């Protein structure tokens, strides 16, 4: 079991965890998690029917006493909060505006037992990019036409004897994506069904040979490296 239980199992369960036994007064980690979730929900912005973006920078302000207790847990707490907020965003269909970053900070204006969470505003004019995931690695679609296959001249090369040298292609205009089979020997499948062509929405999995690939639309960002998160930040 993690340091906090998942939202899906109920935040109230985490209150009875080891954390709750350790901190019998003051703020509970589960309350921080709940506040982060509310802040993400409040600031989520609908970009299109399939795209909802939420902030990626969160500042958690606590009393000096509560902050000291939370800091004593080290990065284990931040890691768990990071995991829970990521899971919540996935469940709600949110995309973060950049790499997720959560910072805990002491604030003399916050009373013991309470938490204040603020998030960076979602910038307008967010740009999006299409990517294809293969074996956990992301390949960015850098042109309007991306060929996938086992041949050296393919834009995305897969080491799969069951695929053709130029097996399929993805047409991407910055808004929409279309998967097209290039008369391959073994065909291209979406949801287990062979297709000659099919529209792709973010999260769609398709199969070439014995290889499963996933198409996603993600926000392009110049934020810090993915997965960055810390206990204390430079916000005054």
TrEMBL record:
Cited InterPro entries: Cell_Proc_Reg/RNA_Proc, FHA_dom, FhaA_N, FhaA_N_sf, SMAD_FHA_dom_sf
Leader sequence segment: none
Domain of life: Bacteria
Domain FHA per the UniProt entry, residue ranges: 146-195
Keywords: Phosphoprotein
Keyword Metal-binding belongs to the record: no
PANTHER family, alphabetized: NUCLEAR INHIBITOR OF PROTEIN PHOSPHATASE-1 (PTHR23308)
Protein's recorded name: DUF3662 and FHA domain-containing protein
Taxonomic lineage of the native organism: Bacteria, Bacillati, Actinomycetota, Actinomycetes, Micrococcales
């Amino acid at each position: 079991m993690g340091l906090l239980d998942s939202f899906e199992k109920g935040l109230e369960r985490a209150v009875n965890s080891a954390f709750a036994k350790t901190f019998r007064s003051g703020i509970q980690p589960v309350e921080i998690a709940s506040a982060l979730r509310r802040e993400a929900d409040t600031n989520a912005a609908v970009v299109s029917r399939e795209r909802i973006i939420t902030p990626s920078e969160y500042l958690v302000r606590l009393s000096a006493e509560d902050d000291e207790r939370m800091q004593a847990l080290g990065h284990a707490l931040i890691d768990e909060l990071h995991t829970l907020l990521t899971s919540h965003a996935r469940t709600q269909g949110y995309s973060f505006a950049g790499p997720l970053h959560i910072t805990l900070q002491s604030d003399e204006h916050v009373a013991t037992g309470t938490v204040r969470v603020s998030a960076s505003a979602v910038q307008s004019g967010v740009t999006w990019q299409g990517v294809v995931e293969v074996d956990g690695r992301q390949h960015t679609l850098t042109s309007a036409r991306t060929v996938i296959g086992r041949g050296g001249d393919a834009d995305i090369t897969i080491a799969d004897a069951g695929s053709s040298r130029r097996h399929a292609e993805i047409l991407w205009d910055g808004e929409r994506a279309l998967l097209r089979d290039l008369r391959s020997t073994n065909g291209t499948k979406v949801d287990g069904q062979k297709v000659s062509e099919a529209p792709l929405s973010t999260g769609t999995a398709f199969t070439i040979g014995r290889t499963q690939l996933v198409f996603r639309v993600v926000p392009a960002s110049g934020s810090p490296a993915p997965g960055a998160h810390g206990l204390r930040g430079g916000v005054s």
